[in-house]
């Protein structure tokens, strides 16, 4: 065997080794990117929840006030509709929290534990749901408070 043949074999080996290392590191980068995106999306979902959850403390008082004004008149029916909207929004939040808690574990939500591929797919649906719940809470509160002014 000649010296040039051995050098060529070493060069091929080194090139293959470098290509392998690049492929492996690229795969890890993609995994980290996907994990970062899912963690970011999870944090956004929790942030939406945390933004509207404190507003729900006003629901009980508003429901009572609206209930006391309900009757068969046109205005009384508006009070009933506003009360029902509040109750629907409240139920939507409670249902969402229960469902979300059943789908995602504490470590995933608060500790940044990596999500399975299936759970990553659920994030888009959960983000859409919590945005709808937040809209229902905000609009029902606004409607009730404006009606009671």
Describe this structure in words.
With 149 residues, the chain is mostly helical. The protein has one domain. It is 86% helix and 0% strand. It has 5 helices and no strands. It has helices at 3-52, 59-69, 74-103, 106-110, 117-148. Helix 2 runs antiparallel to helix 3 and helix 2 packs across helix 5 (117-148). The protein is rod-shaped. Residues 16-22 and 25-34 have low confidence and may be disordered.
What is the ordering of alpha helices and beta strands?
Answer: HHHHH
Low-confidence stretches: 16-22, 25-34
Radius of gyration: 27 Å
Strand count, sense and closure of the main sheet?
none
Give the oligomer, counting copies of the same chain as homo and different chains as hetero: single chain
Please report the number of helical segments: 5
Distance between the termini: 96 Å
Question: What brief labels describe this structure?
Answer:
single chain, 149 residues, mainly alpha, 0% strand, rod-shaped
Secondary structure layout:
Layout: H1 3-52, H2 59-69, H3 74-103, H4 106-110, H5 117-148
Helix pairs in contact: 1-5, 2-3, 2-5, 3-5
Summarize the entry for a quick read.
With 149 residues, the protein is mostly helical. It is built from 5 helices and no strands.
């Amino acid at each position: 065997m000649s010296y040039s043949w051995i050098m060529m074999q070493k060069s091929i080996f080194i090139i293959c080794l470098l290509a392998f290392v690049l492929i492996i590191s690229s795969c890890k980068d993609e995994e980290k990117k996907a994990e970062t995106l899912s963690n970011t999306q999870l944090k956004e979902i929790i942030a939406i929840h945390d933004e509207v959850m404190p507003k729900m403390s006003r629901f009980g008082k508003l429901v009572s006030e609206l209930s006391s004004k309900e009757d068969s008149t046109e205005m009384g029916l508006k009070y009933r509709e506003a009360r029902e909207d509040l109750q629907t929004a409240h139920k939507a939040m409670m249902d969402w929290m229960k469902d979300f808690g059943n789908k995602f574990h504490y470590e995933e939500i608060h500790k940044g534990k990596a999500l399975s591929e299936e759970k990553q797919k659920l994030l888009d649906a959960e983000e859409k749901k919590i945005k709808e719940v937040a809209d229902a809470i905000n609009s029902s509160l606004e409607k009730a408070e404006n009606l009671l002014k």
